[in-house]
Amino acid sequence: MRPASPWWRLLTVALVLLIGAGMYWATLKVNYQWRWERVPEYLLVTGGEEVPAPFDGTVAVSGKQIRITPLLGGEAQVIPEIDVVQVSDGEIVFAGNTVGKKAGITPGPLLVGLWVTLKISALSLVFALVLGLIAGLGRVAHNPAARDLAAIYVELIRGTPLLVQMFIVYFFLGTVLNLSGFVAGVTSLAVFTGAYVAEIVRAGIEAVPKGQMEAARSLGMSHWQGMRKVVLPQALKRSLPPLAGQGINLIKDSSLVSIMALTDLTKAGREVVSSTFSPFEVWFTVALMYLLLTGALSVYVRKLEKKMAHD
Q1: What's the number of CA atoms in the CB half-sphere (13 Å) around residue 274?
Q2: Class of the 46-106 domain?
Q3: Least confident of 191-205, 216-230, 259-273
Q4: What GO biological process terms are annotated to this protein in UniProt (predicted)?
Q5: Are 264 and 111 within 8 A, CB to CB?
């Protein structure tokens, strides 16, 4: 293949710079003051970890130790190793009030939200792959009941919006089964993504020539053995790119779990914006964090594709 002209690279750089200049011009039009220097504190908090009062009580300070005696009676509690004491001896505090700080670096709200997004996305993806594989095999099964059930599941889930499904799972099933917001979020994402994975698996299996299964059966394998040892490995190689795309969509769709009172990356961004009034910096940072997640998944899948191509 003949190498591309460097002028195309220059055109790409010029277009990116033009878009950046346009965005900067737009901020000048609204007289926006950028505060990028504040972004690091949304990621890492260097001022120390706040120590809250466990209950309503009276404070007794001894050096860097705080002893709190409950107002309504009961056993007093000692909070040791307070680096910065923020209450005085004899002061009355209420549950949740900050009594001091422990020195150190703690994750900021955006990193905490990123961790929640990672947990939800990873668990949802695992369950979606299992559910999608089962439904995909059901779509190509010889049993009419398995085909019909898999088809109903796929069409029902793909034909309704994810947000509506989340409302049903969280407010209906969550109430009936007493599910936490985290479990409801993982369930919604896994069921939704599993329907798309099922179609990817079905397409991958049907793309494998039928002669492969016939050859496996002629060697004495059962239908399940031929599917597991011959057809599915080949289908997986063909399905990796769309599966990666579906995984990326799942990470982005996880932003909807904020309706379940979960402080994921998107909700953490909203909370930071509401308290700092720095929407542009925060949302650009949140977008970059999502981009890093999806980019890492894409790189991993490309490496996996190359490895499987050489096997």
Answers
A1: 7
A2: mainly beta
A3: 216-230
A4: amino acid transport
A5: no
Residue 105 pLDDT exceeds 80? no
Average pLDDT over residues 187-213: 90
Report the pLDDT value the prediction gives residue 215, as an integer from 0 to 100.
84
The Cα 219–Cα 233 span in angstroms is 17
Residues 6+ apart with CB under 8 A from 235: 201, 204, 205, 207, 208
As given in the structure block, the two tokens for residue 113 are: 């939200």
User: What is each CA distance from 141 to 56, 108, 120, 134, 145, in whole angstroms?
Assistant: 63, 49, 31, 10, 9
Q: What is the DSSP letter of 255?
A: G
Residue found under tokens 């709200």: 109
Q: What is the pLDDT of residue 311?
A: 63
Question: What is the Rg, in whole angstroms, of the alpha carbon atoms belonging to the chain?
Answer: 27
| Ramachandran bin of 51, using left for φ above 0, alpha for ψ from -120 to 50, beta for the remaining angles | beta
Give 61: exposed, middle or buried? Use CB within 10 Å, 0-12, 13-18, 19+: middle
Evaluate the CA torsion angle 103, 104, 109, 115 in order and state its sign: negative
Q: In the chain, which residues fall in CATH 1.10.3720.10? A: 109-310
Beta strands in the chain (DSSP E): 44-45, 49-52, 57-62, 65-70, 77-79, 84-85, 92-93, 98-102, 106-107
Domain with CATH 2.70.70.10 in the chain: 46-106
Q: Check: CATH 3.10.100.10 for 109-310? A: no
pLDDT, residue 4, reads 62
pTM attached to this predicted model: 0.79
80 vs 41: which has the higher pLDDT: 41
